[in-house]
Each structure stands twice: as structure tokens, then as C-alpha cells.
Amino acid sequence: MFNTGQQVRQNLKDIEPYKPGLSDEQLRRELGNRPLVKLNSNENTLGPSPLAVQAMQAELPKLHLYPDGGSDLVREAIAAHHGVAPSNVFVGNGSDDIIKLISETFLDDSDEIVMPFPSFSQYAFGAHIMKAKVVSVPLKADFTYDVERMLAAVTPRTKLLYLCTPNNPTGTVLRQAEFSWLMERLPEHVFVVVDMAYDNYATSADRFQFEPRLLSRPNLCCLYTFSKLYGLAGLRVGYALGNPEVFSFMHRVREPFNVNRIAQVGAIAALQDVEHVKRSKQLAMQSRKQYEVLNEYGMRCVPTEANFVLVDVGDGVRVFEALRKEGILLRAGYPGLDAYVRITFGTEAENDLCIEGLRRTV
Ligand SMILES: *Cc1c(COP(=O)(O)O)cnc(C)c1O
Questions:
Q1: Residue 14 counted as domain residue
Q2: Which pick of 27, 104, 246, 317 has the fewest CB atoms within 10 Å?
């Protein structure tokens, strides 16, 4: 008899499948056609970039043709956007795809990654599928980075060190001074991945920011995504800026057509959609202010530079369940963050509904 449990790679048994925030489709099944306030996945409440939608519609008749496997036009557009060379750009099926490819490129059995805690779960996922060890380094009590502790966690087996800024789910940023301090001391064998999925929303001048001259460091790459600011989470496009030699190995492990035809034209058009970007950023800024009122009601908001805010509500899962019954979807249940819910910014009206719901519940 075929014994699945015996035949599969044994380390897969320790991997928890990723638990996303409930999708629109799942929610409709569960709650019927009640109006939903979906604030659980850091999506852009303004919808996809209209220019991207137009470009993608125009591309539909070409769907019988394979996409460009090298995503050349996308890389050129991204390169121009950041002032780097196209060879410094690697495009993936979302940044999740890139995190997995980085893991497959670098990690062998018993290698180690160092990552902040709490942070984005995909870094650990990438390590687990490769049988590598995850070394989680707690953020400080105020959720800012503890780079000294991160450095102390590095060993000769450390292959990857992840930084996420603004960090998901805390919204806190890595300071430029902390980044420089760390890079000056980090052993050269460690490859550093800075996930900047929410950097477009960040505003503090002393935060770590990408500059083309950083690419002179061969052991660094920065990750970006079209899923948040550009409102294209369903499309799956992300990219890395970094070292072409590292990318040459990631190309060996990626699928030959990892970014589909529609995604490629959508991403290029979204980059040009200055108006949609401006509106999205403005809404995030207004929302940041709007949620500050929660502090007055005794719910402490972690100061955020992203399109979401982490709020201390006493019992995150209880509050999550209560608001869910009203059709307001938040995120809770993060390890180590029992007291908190993470709230994605919505429209002004959606935020009001959420704030009212929290006042009634907490
Ligand atoms: C949402 C998110 C991403 C983006 O993932 P995609 O696969 O591009 O949708 C990457 N990193 C972090 C920290 C995120 O929160």
C-alpha cells in the first residue's frame, strides 16, 4: 500500500501551511452578501491601479502566447524607476516567490537564517522547506529593531539574515544608523535580505532607504511588491534589487515563466500610475491619524509607518472573533502578540466602522 506519510520528505511534516486572512470568496460564503469591511490582508482598499487594469485588459487576446521568461520589459521599467541597471532587478510571482527562491538558492540542511520576531512568516517557511534552522531574534519591547542581538545571533552557519522595514505586523522601521551599524560588523558570508514591501508608505527621514550605491554590496538585496501600494495582490508580482551574480543562481531554480503575461503588463502600467499611487499614500497617511483616536480609548496603537496598525486590545483573538461577526475582518493570533490585532487601513468610512466596533467590544 502506498504510505504517503512515509514517502514524503519528512521535514514537511513540521511545516504549518500559511494561514492567509480569509479571502473575499471565503467571506462571502461565510457571511453571505452583507457588506464587508476587509481589513485583514494589507490590501489596497482603493482597488487596483486603473492604468494597470486597462493595460491588462488590452493584453488578454495575447494569452495564447507564453510570456517573456526573463521579464525584460518589467525589469527595464523597474530599473528606471529606482535608477539601477536592469541586471540588478529580479522579478518574481510575488515577493513570496522570491523569498522561496532565495531560500532554495542559499540554504542547505542545517544552515541557519536569522530573522526578527515577530515578522513575516514566509522567511521561516523558506528555511523550513530547505531543512534549515530558523533563529528568531525578538524586537525590542517597543517593537523597534535590536540589531546588536541580531548580530549576536549570527554563526558560521548563518546564510541569510532578514530585515523587514516597515516590519509586518508591527509597522516599525529599521533606522539607517542601525542598518549601517549592522552591515559594518556582519561577517561577509551572510546574505542580507531587506523586505521593503511597505516602504512606499514610510515617511521618517532617518529610516533605512534604498539607494543605488547600496548595490556595490554583493551580499544584499531589497525586496519590493506590487501587492500593497499598487493594489495588485491578486496579480502576484514582486521584485528584488541586488547582485546579478546571486540572481544568476536564482534563475536556475525559478520556473521558466514565473511571471505571467498579464502580470508583466500590469506591473509596468502600475509603475506609471502616479495618480493612483498618490491617492493610496494619502489615504494611508489620513488613516494613520484616524486610528490614533484609539489611544484615547485605552487601546494602544504601535506607531506605524505602513498601511496597517498593530493595536493592543487586551485579547486579540476575542476581539477578532467579535468584529468578524459584524463583517469587520482584522488579523489576530500572531505568536507572541496575544493582546494585539493588526488592522489594515481602509477608506475613512471603513476605518470609522472598525473604530466603532472596537469601542463597543474592547
Ligand atoms: C505582503 C507582504 C509581501 C508581499 O508578498 P507578495 O508575495 O508580493 O504578495 C512581502 N513581504 C511582506 C513583509 C509582506 O507583508
A1: no
A2: 317
Domain edge (last residue) among 212, 243, 270:
270
C-beta 96 within 6 A of ligand 1:
yes
Parent domain of 224: 62-270
The atom of ligand 1 lying closest to the CA of 98 is 7
* DSSP tag of 201: G
Q: Measured in angstroms, how far is the CA atom of residue 3 from the centroid of ligand 1?
A: 35
Contacts of 303 (CB under 8 A, 6+ apart): 171, 172
| Cβ(95) – ligand 1 distance below 6 Å | yes
Q: How far is the CA of 197 from the centre of ligand 1 (A)?
A: 6
Say if 100 falls within a structural domain: yes
List C-alpha distances in Å: 138 to 150, 152, 153.
9, 12, 11
Q: Does residue 174 sit within a domain?
A: yes
Nearest to 192 by CA among 231, 219, 170, 153: 219
pLDDT tens digit at each of 362 positions of the chain = 999 999 999 988 888 888 777 777 777 777 777 778 999 999 999 999 999 999 999 999 999 999 999 999 999 999 999 999 999 999 999 999 999 999 999 999 999 999 999 999 999 999 999 999 999 999 999 999 999 999 999 999 999 999 999 999 999 999 999 999 999 999 999 999 999 999 999 999 999 999 999 999 999 999 999 999 999 999 999 999 999 999 999 999 999 999 999 999 999 999 999 999 999 999 999 999 999 999 999 999 999 999 999 999 999 999 999 999 899 999 999 999 999 999 999 999 999 999 999 999 99
Among residues 270, 299, 314, the one where a domain terminates is 270
Measured between its terminal Cα atoms, the distance across the chain in Å is 54
- Pair 188, 333 in one domain: no
- CB of 119 closer than 6 A to ligand 1? no
Distance CA 361, CA 193 (A): 39
The pTM of the full predicted model, rounded to 2 decimals, is: 0.96
